[in-house]
Design a protein that fits this description.
Elements (H helix, E strand, L loop, with lengths): L7 E4 L2 E4 L19 H8 L2 H10 L6 H9 L5 H12 L1
Antiparallel strand pairs: 1-2
Length: about 90
Amino acid sequence: MTAKTFPAIYENGVLRPLEPLALNERQHVRVSISDSADELLPQWLDHEYIATIDVAQETEPSLADVRLALAKIPGNLSDDTRAEREVRG
């Protein structure tokens, strides 16, 4: 299996992923923990895209632009996530 970095939260003595993981029930895994997002941030950035934008000298979209674009997407992300989890069973 390849390494995967994902966000998680620790609550009530349990480390809980904040996104679905493609793992088998009771599968053993190795966990590395970092409490600093700064250590992980460079891995999350799309450096190729950022370089392309820098060369093109395009302006970054504003938060309002992003919200307007996302508002046009039909449905509800929470409902879609629940439905996908039900299909996986």
